[in-house]
Design brief:
Number of helices: 1
Shape: elongated
Structural class: alpha+beta
Helix content: 10-25%
């Protein structure tokens, strides 16, 4: 870590709350945090919906 950043709060509470809320609202997916010049500038979310266990294949059944 550079000497310039030691002792400074480089992530503010609003960013932490936004990332926390994003993760809590996500069951499956990806959260990507983009950083420029040691600052978080973007948070991207790729949400996935899983249907595991909902579909069952019965004898003689097709797709």
């Amino acid at each position: 870590m550079s000497d310039k950043l030691i002792g400074k709060n480089i992530v503010n509470d609003a960013i932490i709350k936004d990332i926390n809320d994003t993760i809590r609202g996500l069951n499956y997916g990806i959260v990507t945090i983009t950083v420029h010049d040691a600052r978080i500038v973007q948070v991207e979310v790729a949400k996935k919906t899983r249907f595991d266990g909902i579909w069952t294949v019965q004898d003689g059944a097709g797709i």
